[in-house]
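Reviewer 2 asked us to include a model.

Predict the structure of this chain.
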Amino acid sequence: MNHLKATALLLIAPHMALAQQSASGSAAMRLNTLTPEERAAGWRLLFDGHSTAGWRGWQMDSMPSGWGVREGALVRVRPAADIITTEKFKNFELSLEWNVAPGGNSGIFYRASEDDNAIYWTAPEMQILDDAGHPDGQSRLTSAGADYGLYPSPPGVVKPAGEWNQVRIVANGNHIEHWMNGVKVVEYELLQEHEFRVAFRNIKIRVLP
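Predicted model (structure tokens):
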């Protein structure tokens, strides 16, 4: 696969339960909006906080019925197919927040294609995980923030289950960075269905030259 072509960004939801939103931290901020500074820097919203516009199911033309909007978050409310942005991006900086319940496991795939029968064969994955409550948390290669199975993330950065984590993914040419809660947890150069629920919010992207 040519990772430098314009490929779609994916948000995936395996083995994940929706956690109760906490009133602490960024949850008290205005959700799914852009500041004047963000607009000037080229950021735009991928999720408006009210609808699923701009999203569809992976290898589908429409949005799976199991996804919906709940309290300003894009939520997998019941078992459903994975979702993908309708627009494709080549070089970008992605910013969003995720919240996982105890035992939850999910991931964000990027630079992906729909040419195979499973998303994980086509793209890198930033792991989303309750490190303390899921077996994958026993290895740094499969813990929250890691490039799943390839590049480890450091311990002590992810927040406990039930709290919102802020993450960024920078994909600029072959250069990739994973950031979590203000810490760069992974940096590398590219060489080349589940039953629970998941929620995302404040999903923003900035196209890089």
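Residues 36-40 form the longest helix (5 residues). The chain has one domain: 7-207. We have added this to the supplementary material.
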